[in-house]
């Protein structure tokens, strides 16, 4: 289910002026220390503007498949940053 959702969500990033900078699937050996559940996958994504990100989040095609994400993802951490 997770991969089915990603097959829809990842291509939509470009549609809204975004770029998938990194997609990481860490192994147990990649963690030196952790105090949260180890993630299955980590994405670093950037969008040109906040409204581009909001438009991606509200994409009608992506929204139709959010149930796949909800059924296959335990938690999501969204960290907003600025480029220094």
Architecture blueprint of SSEs:
Elements: H1 2-15, E1 18-24, E2 42-47, H2 50-57, H3 60-63, H4 66-72
Antiparallel strand pairs: 1-2
Describe this structure in words.
The chain has one domain (about 1-30, about 40-70). The longest helix is centred in the N-terminal third of the chain and has 14 residues, at about 1-15. It is α+β, with helices and mostly antiparallel strands and about 80 residues long. It is globular. The protein contains 4 helices and 2 strands; from the N terminus they run H-E-E-H-H-H. The model has no long low-confidence stretch (mean pLDDT about 95). Helix 1 (about 1-15) crosses helix 4. The chain has helices spanning about 1-15, 50-55, 60-65, 65-70; strands spanning about 20-25, 40-45. A two-stranded antiparallel ribbon has the order 1-2.
Characteristics:
84 residues; globular; 39% helix; single chain; 4 helices; alpha+beta; 15% strand
Radius of gyration: 14 Å
Which strand order spans the largest sheet, edge to edge or round the barrel? 1-2
Q: What class, by secondary structure content? A: alpha+beta
Please state roughly what percent of the residues sit in beta strands, choosing from under 5%, 5-15%, 15-25%, 25-35%, 35-45% or over 45%: 15-25%
Write down the overall mean pLDDT. Answer: 93
Q: Catalogue the unreliable spans.
A: none
Total domain modules: 1
Major pleated sheet: 2 strands, antiparallel
Terminal CA distance reads: 36 Å
Q: Give me the number of helical elements.
A: 4
Give helix % range: 25-40%
User: What oligomeric state is this?
Assistant: single chain
Number of strands: 2
Order of helices and strands: HEEHHH
Shape: globular
